[in-house]
Predict the structure.
Amino acid sequence: MSEPRIRVLVAKPGLDGHDRGAKIIARALRDAGMEVVYTGLRQTAEMIVSAAIQEDVDVIGLSILSGAHLHYTTEISRLLQEQGASDILLFLGGIIPTEDVPRLVALGVKGIFTPGASTAQVVSAIRQAVVERH
Amino acid sequence: MKPLDLARQAAQGDRRALAQLLSWVEDDCPEGRAALSALVEPAQPACVIGITGSPGCGKSTLVDALIAHLRQQDLSVAVLAVDPSSPFSGGAILGDRIRMSRHFLDPGVFIRSLASRGSLGGLAPGVPAALRLFGAVGFPWVLIETVGVGQSEIDVAEIADLCALVLSPATGDGIQAFKAGILEVADVVVINKADLDGALELEREVKATLALSSEPPPVLRTVALSGEGVDQLYAVLSQLWTTLRDTGGLQQRRRRRTRYEVAAALRQLASQALAGAEAVFEAVEDGRLSAQAAAERLLAQRHQQG
Ligand SMILES: Nc1nc2c(ncn2[C@@H]2O[C@H](COP(=O)(O)OP(=O)(O)O)[C@@H](O)[C@H]2O)c(=O)[nH]1
Ligand SMILES: [Mg+2]
């Protein structure tokens, strides 16, 4: 038996209209052997959580450039809790000011990646968080 | 969570439980098998429709439009969207959902993306078990989207009750379909992107080719993006399915699916038996053992290990 595959939902909440970064991450995760469910642009928090539950992912990776990261993270983490899915790990990528980091961590975000981060860092952080969860 | 509890919750409509069960059967773990055996077959079998065709011909968009049509009639629907795993990393990008996002919050729609994993060019190995789950949970309709490359369209035709082959004028599908003989697996041929140039011509070509077969499948035109022609497709699929059910054809197809499932399990046993069999391979090379005898010995050993 091979080890279970890590499944990741990559989503782009909100209205900002480009997903190049999200696609780069999705490809890097695939190349690291993960199964990446890609849901595309303009997702609401409800849509993301519903998709994550149906897809039974281990991880949700959010790409947020619009500055609305606190809003979406709060919403998503609340919905995950409500729907009994708070074991799904949250990761965040985008333009995130350092002063917001403590609040995001308090909301349960497991990893935060700003534009300078390498895809290898993202891959290894996700792997490690999934292993630690079990 | 225990398999039986989870099975009960899923049968009562708990989506998280269903999703977890799907992962178990996909990973083919003992918990998944236990849960499956606890679920009861529904009184009314689900309509299982395979949708196949080359990348970009509009399968996901068509599934989205079919979901909308089914929901208008208050029929709930489960979707399995299968995409190939990378042969290099084993990972996959599963992007079919993007086209179906307007249904994400509809409690009557359940969408699951699957990577094809080990099966060479074929369908994901967990698909038949997933179908059993969806049936037991009570979805009257199940749609399976598979990329029509290699083995997968043949596989989906063996697993589904009915198989719709989607062609589009934009992708130069005509010649390809005729060459590979995939028209033969189709119960319905859909000419999608009928709004584009070349659709009528493609339809004519397809019909001309099909005229040679004894029971040519219906050929329909759709514009999946606008939903045009999808009511017609739905009507044809329901009609064909009802006829199958009433003439005993459905039972034959289910038997074909069971056969496929057992064959897949056999292949898996074989590949497990081959692991670490170097000594046996040497014996075959030295002429001490025939390949046939080696195979029998390996399977027997595998059996002893349980
Ligand atoms: N013009 C036109 N484009 C379509 C139609 N159906 C799908 N498309 C487009 O074709 C592209 C591929 O569609 P998709 O559903 O992802 O194809 P798949 O790879 O077969 O699942 C998308 O850009 C769709 O918007 C149609 O009926 N007409
Ligand atoms: Mg698709």
Observations:
- The two ends of chain B are 25 Å apart (CA to CA).
